[in-house]
Amino acid sequence: DWTSFSLKWPMTEVTPALIQHLEDMLTHRWPEVERMHENVVKNRCWFDYNSEDEACSPYFGIVKALQKRKAGRVRTLGLWWRHTRDAVAAVHGGSR
After folding, report:
1. Average pLDDT of the chain to the nearest whole number
2. Contacts of 73 (CB under 8 A, 6+ apart)
3. What span, in angstroms and rounded, lies between the C-alpha atoms of 13 and 23?
């Protein structure tokens, strides 16, 4: 959960207002800042490309995300489906 350890701020709004927001967090919302830091520590292996933890590294995360995408893809039955031989032959100049 990204919201538990990060702050989302639009790049177009990186102005003194961001600094003011961060200073406000440090001054008035310290318990929240501490929780965010604790969660950064818990999740830091996901950002450490030298991590030796095979179950928690950026590489593992990338592979896991790609496997999830692959599982959700529609599998085809080849290059052609719902066709007649004549339609395929017409595309290939009668050679099929």
Report:
1. 85
2. none
3. 16
